[in-house]
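User: For a benchmark we're assembling, each entry needs the component sequences followed by a predicted structure for the full assembly. Here are entry 17's components. Please fill in the structure.
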Amino acid sequence: MNLFSIAFKNLARNRFRVVLTILGVAVPVVTFVLLRTVIWAWELGAEVAAKDRVVTRHKVTFIMTLPSRYVNELQQHAKELGVKQSTYAVWFGAKDPAHDKEFFATLGVDPKTYLDVYTEMSVTPQEKQAWLQNRKGALVGDVLARKLGWKVGDKVTLQTPFYPDTPNWEFAIEGIYQATAKSVDRSSFFFHYDYMNESVHALQRDQVGWIVSRVVDPSRAAEVGVRIDKMFEQQETQTLSQDEGAFQASFLASFSALLKTLNVISIVILVIMSLILGNTIAMGVRERTNEYGVLRAVGFLPKHLVIFVLGESVLLAGFGGALGLLLAYPFVEQGLGRFIEENMGNYFPYFRVTPETAIAAFGASLVVGVLAAAIPAYRVSKLRVVEALRRVA
Amino acid sequence: MIKLSGIDKTYYRGDEAVKVLDQLTLDIPAGSFEALMGPSGSGKSTLLNLIAGLDRPSGGSIEIAGQRIDQLSESQLAQWRADNVGFIFQSYNLLPVLTAVENVELPLLLTTVPARERRRRAETALRIVGLSERMHHYPRQLSGGQEQRVAIARAIVNDPKLLVCDEPTGDLDRHSADEVLRLLETLNKEMHKTIVMVTHDPVAAERAGIVRRLEKGALA
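Assistant: Structure for entry 17:
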């Protein structure tokens, strides 16, 4: 027997209250884990972005397009700019009428260069070759293919409000890609830019959404961006070039208020957790004032009583935190995570509980355990022995 | 053993001062068994608390076994209590989550005695009070008399010189009260414990060697 084991035994006094308190901690921990996972998954793109890729877009906003000749100009001056290879993409905004409610990214790209720039997209050489050779060929992510039941060889018809002159766009699935990095959306649909470009209205022709360049020296990516923008400075459309991390961050910036709100909510949840726990501990301390008086009488010091109170609170918080993780982990890994990756892959290509999030949640619950017990522990330490014993009588 | 000289004790209720003990002087020799009696509010529990080092006098000095305990710091006083005083309360005050032997072992947690030796001493103390069969019972599984005997075992496990008892038979039936009083007599006579007992019960007081009466904060 020691002080810690007594704190442990104290938990068994009112089992119903203890169970409710542990649940009262576990539920906020589950919510905390979910919120932190959302924030983490959202910021993941910027964190794991390739350091050697520079994204060039319209200077005003990324929803405005660039002339496709910029790609050629950039490739012509690649050496002096410090660029190894460039590719481009345009947002197509299409849907499969057979799966009307399913949203997935559809991008017109240059098939000859796109996979060389995005090396974290993995596809078999045979499927890659087939995609290159078929002007109507499409390359789709494995998550999207599984979700919509597509396989190589399937014919797919898409419709897009962006290019109303062509009501139906026919494609053949030539390949299914997988990802070798967490940042890659496995629910995208890639096709030949040229197929789209030759079919659209003249006013929309020869426009690309953005240009992506792999640079020779990743440590000088920012300089490369500046040189690219300088090259187009005197032309009719100015550009803004950023390394991929900064590009992702500027995209995230438009959701910064939401992310800040999620951060605040996760802190509010911790406060609620500490109030639940603090209330239980304070009740326990009030009920046991006489016992603390007896312990002080037989020689226990205020610090020993503080150990009892803190120990009990941290144990409760620890059990609650562990239970919360036990509930959150399978919930995300087996259910919610898969659902989000399949349905919101553009925003959350990888939605899983990371060890860092789990450690942060458990650590936060222990810290809350200490904070919740701070006031009751302080009051116990200031207890006068005679007054405490008098409450016995 | 216990020397109290010119003890004053004043409590404050808001701005009002209430003098509970007034210039009280008392000498209790080592090895004696004394009962303190008196009406409610006469100051007997306050006097017991001062002797036990649970409270401090407003004036005067308290010397126990040659040591001025009124001059000790809070932590020194706590250590002194742990080493020298055993407490027996009216309502036993056992920790309900601990078994009898664990309750008895509790004061030894403050010492450097190894765990195995702690347990051995606690078992010995329980044997002395006749509860070796109930060592692993929780307080709720014991009768009032048995609970009080566990409390006595807890009080003697440190082998203190002084036992202070605050209405030790107040919650017990006559039979159980007799058992507890007999045990206290044994501890006094055979183990030479000095015992100071506050009681309202004249039958209990008769078992003590000396009976002192307090009235309005002074010895009558």
